[in-house]
Design a protein that fits this description.
This protein has 337 residues and is mainly beta. It contains 2 helices and 22 strands. It starts with 7 loop residues before the first strand and ends with a strand.
Amino acid sequence: MTDFTELVDLAAERVGGAVLYANDDFFAPKENLLKASAPVFLEGEYTDRGKWMDGWESRRRRTPGFDWCVIRLGLPGIIRGVVVDTAFFKGNYPEQCSLEACAVDGQPTIEQLLDEAVEWREVLPVSALRGDSQNPFPIADTERATHLRFKIYPDGGVARLRVYGEVVPDRARTAAAAGGGRIDLAAVESGGLVLACSDMFFGHRHNLIMPGRAANMSDGWETKRRRGPGHDWVVIKLGARGRIHQVEVDTSHFKGNFPESCSLEGADAPADGGDASALDSLAWTEILPRTKLQAHTRHHFTDELRHAPGALTHVRFNIYPDGGVSRLRLYGSVEEE
C-alpha cells in the first residue's frame, strides 16, 4: 500500500472510533464503515431492504446532492492518509468522495457538530474512487482533528474507511501527568507509536500498545519461529518524554508460544531526531535486564528496573528468542520540557 498505512488507524473501533450520524444508510448500516474485520461477501444473502452488504450503503439518489456521515475519531491526531475500501461494491460504489475534519474537544453531540459555528476544513478534495478496490489517499493536513465528515458522490456503498495518522493526545491530560501523575507512556492513547520491529508474522506490532486487554492470541504482537541465532525486538517512540517507574509485560493467551525471557532498553533522543530512520544512531541504556517470562501471565516489574537512565523518549523491547506478547505497559511520569 503506502507508508502512511504503517501508522495507527485513528478511527478504529478498538480505540473508540464511531460513526455518529449518516444522512442515509438504507441498504447497509453506517456502523459497518469502521468494523475491524475485513469486509466479506455473502452470496445470496438478502434483507427486506435488498442485498446484504458488509459496509455503509445509501439508497439510489434521485435528487441533486451527495450522501455523508460524521465520524468521531477514537484518537485525536494529525491525519496522514486514508484508505477508502469499496470491496465487493462493484455496480453500486460512489463515483467520488471527499473528507473534512474539525477539532472539537470533549464529547460534543451530533447537534453541536452540525452547528454552523463548527469550522470544518477540507483535508481530501473530491477524488475519484474505483469499485471493489482499496483506494489510498495521502493527506497533507497538519492540524489536529477529532471528527471527520465523509462525503460520497452522489450515493452508493463503501465497505471500510481507515484513517491513518499520528496521535495528538489531550494536552491538558499530559500537563496534569507532568504534575506528578503517572500514565502509560507507551500507550497509543498517550501518543505512543511502535516505529519498527524485527518481525510481526502472526500479530501486528501496534497491538502491543493498544487499549485494554487482548481479546485473544491474534490481538498481540507475535513473531515467527526463529530457526537461527538472535532475538526479536520492537522500538517504541513514547507519547511524551518521561521516566519509567513500572513495566508490565502481558503474555495472556500465549501459552505454547510465549518468549522465554525479555529485556528493555531506553534512549533519550533530541527533539528533532528519533524517527524510524534514525534508530541506529540512538544510544541505548538497559532498563530491565533479561528476565524470564511465564505463559499466559501479566508480569509487573518495579524493583527489577534500573532507574539510572532518567528521562526517555524511546524504548527497545527485546524478546528471546521469539514468540508473542499481548501488551506492553510502561507506567511513568512525564518530564516537563
